[in-house]
Design brief:
Elements (H helix, E strand, L loop, with lengths): L2 E5 L4 H12 L3 E6 L6 H11 L4 E4 L5 H10 L4 E4 L6 H6 L1 H22 L3 E7 L23 H19 L4 E7 L1 E3 L18 H9 L6 E4 L11 E2 L1 E3 H17 L3 E6 L5 E2 H12 L5 E4 L8 E2 L4 H7 L7 H14 L8
Parallel strand pairs: 1-2, 1-4, 2-3, 4-5, 5-6, 6-11, 7-10, 8-13, 9-14
Antiparallel strand pairs: 9-12
Helix pairs in contact: 1-2, 1-8, 3-5, 5-6, 7-11, 9-11
The structure holds nicotinamide-adenine-dinucleotide and UDP-4-deoxy-4-formamido-beta-L-arabinopyranose (WQD).
UDP-4-deoxy-4-formamido-beta-L-arabinopyranose (WQD) binds next to helix 7 and strand 8.
Length: about 350
């Protein structure tokens, strides 16, 4: 079976993808510098699957170190998760974001070229659709004007991959544009473990539920949406992870340069998330309505047809599953992987 290198594979989406790849019979090698994760997630991936992962503590920007990984293994394909992803922090520290996110990408492409590895899947984001494209977003729409440096790094990296694939006819690339991944593995052993105060909605909700935060502020209830709060395309991280397995199967069999949305196509509002979480889990989420957050769009959701057409993939898990599994993870791990 093929060997897949997960750059940044100890993180939230990478660890869930590792589980699904191992369950599908792939060999998994992870390289991560633990900038936003810990080796504990990889240990738990091994527990869940009963299979071994080869783990390197490595900064992907370190070309020489990365080259050693490619010499030590016959890598058939790479999934590039490694990146910094906090939108607000990217506004404060744009240079750090451009340096880390762009350099990891260049380093991977250079070392892959040396090692003659020709298949790469990249973690892109719905954020590249920008402010002006109408929802639902389809892959044929142009990249838009991003609202923050994090988003620009994704748009720039997409451009880099497109140019690299154009120049090297043997290089296959799939750019996966994720929408809003939430939830956790059903075991509750792996999940999202944000550092400090969560920026994203679901980890904030689960931290209110577990008593770590007093109250959720819902950012704005005067948007032009059915209940006035923003709508998003929330996708269960296990569905997302299975989408990567399909993308690996596809890229190993086809020469390609594809952009593919990974979303459900179904928008839900912030209020619906809070209501569903309360109902499914039987807990109260103390919340207030506050001002709009700068940069938030009223609505963001996918047209998910292409993923079904090309990869034969669509989501299977519901919003109830997402809320239940997010809470199960948080309850079992009130401090994430810390002190595990
Ligand atoms: P995450 O922070 O949990 O995972 C990213 C991993 O990359 C972490 O383990 C981190 O330690 C590692 N990393 C960062 N810089 C590195 C470097 N220089 N060398 C080695 N490892 C490095 O985030 P995630 O939610 O799992 O996201 C994975 C990818 O998907 C990221 O590229 C992110 O931008 C993208 N993405 C995430 C979302 C989301 O909402 N979670 C949405 C769209 C796209
Ligand atoms: C969701 C909704 C908030 C927190 C971000 C990135 C995007 C992608 C996914 C990586 C919004 C509201 C949130 C809170 C709230 N990441 N909210 N109170 O902003 O859709 O997307 O993560 O690529 O690029 O921008 O996700 O989870 O932050 O917010 O009311 O305390 O929840 O206003 O409507 P977002 P989010």
């Amino acid at each position: 079976m093929a060997t897949v290198l997960l750059a940044g594979g100890a993180g939230y989406i990478g660890s869930h993808t590792a589980v699904e790849l191992l369950n599908a019979g792939y060999e998994v090698v992870i390289a991560d510098n633990f900038a936003n994760s810990s080796p504990e997630s990889v240990r738990r991936v091994e527990q869940i699957t009963g299979k071994k992962v080869t783990l390197y503590e490595l900064d992907i920007k370190d070309r020489a170190g990365l080259s050693e990984v490619f010499h030590a293994h016959q890598i058939d394909a790479v999934i590039h998760f490694a990146g910094l992803k906090a939108v607000g922090e990217s506004v404060e520290k744009p240079i750090m974001y451009y340096r880390n996110n762009i350099d990891t990408t260049l380093s991977l492409l250079e070392v892959m070229q040396e090692a003659d590895v020709k298949k790469i899947i990249f973690s892109s984001s719905a954020t590249v659709y920008g402010e002006t494209n109408p929802v639902p977003y389809t892959e044929t729409m142009p990249r838009g004007v991003c609202t923050n440096p994090y988003g620009w790094t994704k748009a720039m990296m997409e451009q880099i991959f497109e140019d690299a694939a154009r120049a090297d006819q043997a290089l296959s690339v799939i750019l996966l544009r994720y929408f809003n991944p939430i939830g956790a593995h059903a075991s509750g052993r792996i999940g999202e473990d944000p550092q400090g105060i969560p920026n994203n909605l679901m980890p904030y909700v689960t931290q209110v539920a577990v008593g770590k935060r007093a109250c959720l502020t819902i950012y704005g209830n005067d948007y032009p949406t059915p209940d006035g709060t923003c709508t998003r395309d929330y996708i269960h991280v296990v569905d997302l992870a299975k989408g990567h397995v399909k993308a690996i199967q596809y890229i190993l069999q086809n020469h390609c340069m594809e952009i593919i949305n990974l979303g459900t196509g179904q928008p839900y509002s912030v209020t619906e998330i809070v209501d569903t979480f309360e109902k499914v889990n039987g807990v109260k989420i103390n919340h207030v309505y506050g001002a709009r957050r700068a940069g938030d769009l009223p609505a963001c959701y996918a047209n998910a047809d292409k993923a079904l057409e090309i990869l034969g993939w669509k989501t299977e898990l519901s919003l109830e599953d997402m809320c239940r599994d997010a809470w199960n993870w948080q309850k079992q791990n009130p401090n994430g992987y810390q002190n595990a």
